[in-house]
Design goal:
CATH class of the largest domain: Alpha Beta
Number of strands: 19
Order of helices and strands: EEEHHHEEEHEEEEEEEHEEEHEEEH
CATH superfamily of the largest domain: Fumarylacetoacetase-like, C-terminal domain
Radius of gyration: 18 Å
Structural class: alpha+beta
Strand content: 25-35%
Number of helices: 7
CATH topology of the largest domain: Fumarylacetoacetate hydrolase, domain 2
């Protein structure tokens, strides 16, 4: 299934892609509960709620919205955790002059960074080093701690595209990456949450990005240094993974900061990130004042 969060004039609605359009799950089931408004809440609600959504999708009856990605928000608006892996593609490590790390390197994002798949994104005020990073993200469906690699994939509920947009001067001003990875609105994701059964091998997906029509990244998740079972086992050593947690797995080579000369995003350009089977994010960079006005006038 492909599930999304559709912005209506009355708040967010959980939708599922069908041949008729995007089915309004809550209206189709006659249910108004938190899990009919957000994918993360659906995962927290558990297997019974997910089974009801699958049944609604298979029946395909009920009100639908015409497909319009500009109305989609982040599939999961408020993950309990947003965990990100740095330097996790062999060629990306090399292009930055790094040896492949011996163990996964992590940083954390906050939910105010999240954006929908077609939302405008703000050019960070005072910076001219705004970069894009196409990533495969997975979403936790089953809680766990000290998860064995052999059992890890049973904890994955599904996948989405993530753009780990980075303010490079803030990222590199000290030893911690937090400021450069947490600018409001700098984490587009989606366009849909795609359930794990739709993606039989997340380690063999084409992944890439463009700025307008210029190709920035073109790679495959087979270049990951640490695969998903390794990441899950390692993360769960120090934190409990919970339903709805979002994990971004790293970006391939081709980012603007590593190019000679560097190629950063500019106002008016559109950053596109694609992962095979999951879709494309297309986010136009706007002046931050314009973005603030858009955000304040947006009806969720």
């Amino acid at each position: 299934m492909k599930l999304g969060t559709y912005r209506t004039g009355h708040g967010p609605a959980l939708v599922v892609e069908t041949s008729r359009g995007w089915l309004d799950v809550g209206a189709a089931l006659g249910v108004d509960a938190p899990w009919t408004h957000d994918v993360g809440a659906l995962l927290v609600a558990g297997d019974e709620a997910m089974a009801r959504v699958r049944a609604a999708a298979q029946a395909g009856t009920g009100p639908v919205f015409a497909p319009d990605e500009s109305r989609l928000g982040p599939p999961i608006a408020h993950p309990g955790k947003i965990l990100c892996v740095g330097l996790n593609y062999r060629e990306h490590a090399r292009e930055g002059g790094h040896e492949p790390p011996a163990a996964p390197e992590y940083f954390v994002r906050v939910d105010t960074t999240l954006a929908g798949p077609a939302d405008p994104v703000p050019m960070p005020t005072g910076s001219d080093r705004f970069d894009l990073e196409a990533e495969l993200a997975f979403v936790v469906g089953r809680a766990g701690r000290f998860i064995a690699k052999a059992d890890a994939m049973a904890h994955v509920a599904g996948y989405m595209v993530f753009n780990d947009m980075s303010v490079r001067d803030l990222q590199k001003r000290g030893s911690q990456w937090t400021p450069g990875k947490n600018w409001d609105g700098s984490g587009p994701c989606g366009p849909f949450f795609v359930t794990a059964d739709e993606i039989p091998d997340p380690g063999a997906l084409d992944i890439g990005s463009t700025i307008d029509d210029f190709v920035m990244q073109a790679s495959n998740t087979s270049d990951l240094i640490f695969d998903l079972p390794t990441i899950i086992a390692d993360l769960s050593r120090f934190t409990t993974l919970e339903p709805g947690d979002l994990v971004a797995t790293g970006t391939p080579p081709g980012v603007g900061d590593a190019r000679k000369p560097p190629r950063y995003l500019k106002v008016g350009e559109t950053a596109r990130c694609t992962v095979a089977g999951l879709g494309t994010l297309a986010n136009r960079v706007v002046d931050e004042r314009e973005w603030l006005a858009w955000r304040s006038g947006r009806a969720d």
